[in-house]
């Protein structure tokens, strides 16, 4: 165990090293290289004795050629060993980083949606990028230093003992002090590095938020405020990094002072041994060479505590995600294609930290092939309701049934295959038009099927005008397309999936009149023969729904057709008249 690593830290570090176990062949090659490196360092110091005693004192001509060739051969072997060590550890370390990143991204995709509500995406990305890099340093670079330099120190001390036990024991007196300093520095590093990694995540979040809203920042004159916010986070991170470097520099200086103290002790005791005839000049030079070779190893072992503790702190953050509970998928009932009858029975849902329930006693039935519109004021629970159907969230009470079976009894992947989702905020990927339409489980769709889906979604006309047609890359989240074009690609994706349940979450709310007309026309072709749930901001778009659910503060306060609800002169009628007046005023 590295000095200063706590039992808990060692447990985390052992688990991290477990990821490197699958690359045992690389680690074995590196380990052999480390042993040879350390042995070469010891052998070189041993060569100093005959070099001085035979070549300079006894003036023996036989060693004139042998000793230089021995040194040359020794360093060739050491060079090969260093290459094996560096390559093996680097390859294993980078492989561990790759494996952790893959495991982390896969884990993110299996976490409940509530996790993404509680933690901002930049913080999640920081774990994926920054924390895994710290793990690389701890699992490869730091491990190399610990093993190589520990072996080197052990072999050099053995060499020194072979030359003079008295002198070596006098020097070893300072070793407990160096170990104590390493332990203190290690504990301090871990505390500070946890703060640094949290700070990096906060900086990433602040920067992403500012740059994503750069137009609003400019229009409302928020440049100074955002720069100040980021500057405060950057300064805190600077302060913590300076604390790390100050601790490292101070520890290194103290260790070097202790090493100088040990050197002074060696000189004193060695001088006395030489006067008494118990030490030759060659032994003294060999001892001094070993002592000078020890100093860099001692310094590196002291400094490496920072990398180890950064790695442990990063691993702790990574493992907190990897150990987090995943979406519940305990169902065993297969589902090829649902009829599409959806029933809510007294469903209640509370978000963590919220006093008022997001949904409270919601009950309704959506018959197969019908359109159910969900309307209400902002924050009334509309989006929450439809997100319970793909089980993005789990209700706290009540039941949701599909074709008379509770959702939890279906296999999660089978359930989600029954659902197509088109939202106001369309998510597209930095890929081709065709890849965005034939996404996920539909990736094997034929070009003809993709073209038919695009045509049905009124997207073919603009796709054919793109430089490479269906093979045109559209940028991050479809940055090269307009809002209406992005929405029609999302509809084409839903056409291609051909799911029996369709969820439209304010799919036309942010579109201009022309784009809305094209999207509404595409939706009119998509909706028939599916169970459709429509969250509508513009109430004029739900006039032909089979039933309208009016939500207020998480409860269904009205239910019926558009005409029935207008006749009741309740909340729906009030909202409709408000929108009608706004339209008239416009």
From TrEMBL:
Q: Which residues cross the membrane?
A: 23-45, 65-84, 142-161, 167-185, 249-269
User: Carries keyword Chloroplast?
Assistant: no
Locate the ABC transporter domain: which residues?
Answer: 342-578
Q: Which InterPro entries match?
A: AAA+_ATPase, ABC1_TM_dom, ABC1_TM_sf, ABC_transporter-like_ATP-bd, ABC_transporter-like_CS, ABC_transpr_lipidA, P-loop_NTPase, Type_1_exporter
Q: Any idea which UniProt keywords this protein has?
A: ATP-binding, Cell membrane, Hydrolase, Lipid transport, Membrane, Nucleotide-binding, Translocase, Transmembrane, Transmembrane helix, Transport
Q: Which CDD domains match?
A: ABC_6TM_MsbA_like
EC number(s) per UniProt?
Answer: 3.6.3.-
Pfam families from the entry? ABC_membrane, ABC_tran
Q: Which NCBIfam families match?
A: MsbA_lipidA (TIGR02203)
Q: What is this protein called?
A: Subfamily B ATP-binding cassette protein MsbA
């Amino acid at each position: 165990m590295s000095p200063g690593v706590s039992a808990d830290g060692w447990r985390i570090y052992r688990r991290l090293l477990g990821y490197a176990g699958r690359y045992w062949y690389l680690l074995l090659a590196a380990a052999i290289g480390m042993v040879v490196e350390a042995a070469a360092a010891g052998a070189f110091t041993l060569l100093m004795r005959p070099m001085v005693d035979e070549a300079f004192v006894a003036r023996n001509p036989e060693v004139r050629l042998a000793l230089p060739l021995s040194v040359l051969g020794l360093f060739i072997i050491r060079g090969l060993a260093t290459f094996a060590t560096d390559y093996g550890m680097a390859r294993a370390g980078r492989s561990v980083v790759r494996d952790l990143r893959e495991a982390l991204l896969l884990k993110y995709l299996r976490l409940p949606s509530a996790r993404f509500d509680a933690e901002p995406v930049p913080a999640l990305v920081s774990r994926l990028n920054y924390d895994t890099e710290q793990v690389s340093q701890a699992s490869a670079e730091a491990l190399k230093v610990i093993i190589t330099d520990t072996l080197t120190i052990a072999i050099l001390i053995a060499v020194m003992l072979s030359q003079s036990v008295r002198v070596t024991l006098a020097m070893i007196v300072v070793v407990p002090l160096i170990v104590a300093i390493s332990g203190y520095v290690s504990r301090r590093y871990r505390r500070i590095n946890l703060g640094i990694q949290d700070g990096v995540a906060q900086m990433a979040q602040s920067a992403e938020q500012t740059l994503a809203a750069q137009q609003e920042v400019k229009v409302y004159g928020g440049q100074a405020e955002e720069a100040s916010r980021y500057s405060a986070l950057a300064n805190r991170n600077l302060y913590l990094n300076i604390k790390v470097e100050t601790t490292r520099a101070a520890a290194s200086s103290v260790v070097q002072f202790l090493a100088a103290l040990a050197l002074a002790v060696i000189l004193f005791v060695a001088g006395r041994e030489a006067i008494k005839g118990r030490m030759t000049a060659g032994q003294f030079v060999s001892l001094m060479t070993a002592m000078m070779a020890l100093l860099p190893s001692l310094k590196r072992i002291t400094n490496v505590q920072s990398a180890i503790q950064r790695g442990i702190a990063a691993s702790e953050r990574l493992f907190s995600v990897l150990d987090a509970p995943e979406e519940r998928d305990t169902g065993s009932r297969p589902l090829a294609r649902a009829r599409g009858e959806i029933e809510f029975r007294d469903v209640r849902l509370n978000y963590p930290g919220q006093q008022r329930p997001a949904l409270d006693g919601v009950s309704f039935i959506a018959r197969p092939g019908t359109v159910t519109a969900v309307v209400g004021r902002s924050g009334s629970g509309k989006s929450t309701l439809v997100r319970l159907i793909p089980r993005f969230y789990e209700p706290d009470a009540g039941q949701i049934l599909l074709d008379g079976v509770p959702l939890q009894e279906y296999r999660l992947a089978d359930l989600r295959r029954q659902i197509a989702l088109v939202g106001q905020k369309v998510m597209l990927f930095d890929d081709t038009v065709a890849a965005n339409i034939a996404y996920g489980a539909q990736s094997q769709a034929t070009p003809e099927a993709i073209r038919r889906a695009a045509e049905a979604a009124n997207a073919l006309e603009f796709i054919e005008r793109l430089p490479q047609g269906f093979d045109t890359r559209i940028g991050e989240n479809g940055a090269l397309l307009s809002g209406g074009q992005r929405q029609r690609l999302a509809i084409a994706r839903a056409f291609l999936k051909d799911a029996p349940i369709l969820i439209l979450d304010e799919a036309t709310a942010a579109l201009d009149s022309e784009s809305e007309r094209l999207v509404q026309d595409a939706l009119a072709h998509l909706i028939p023969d599916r169970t459709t749930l429509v969250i509508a901001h513009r109430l004029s778009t739900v006039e032909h729904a089979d039933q309208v659910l009016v939500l207020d503060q998480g409860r269904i306060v009205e239910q019926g057709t558009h005409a029935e609800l207008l006749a009741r002169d309740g909340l729906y009628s009030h909202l409709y008249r408000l929108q009608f007046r706004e339209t008239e005023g416009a």
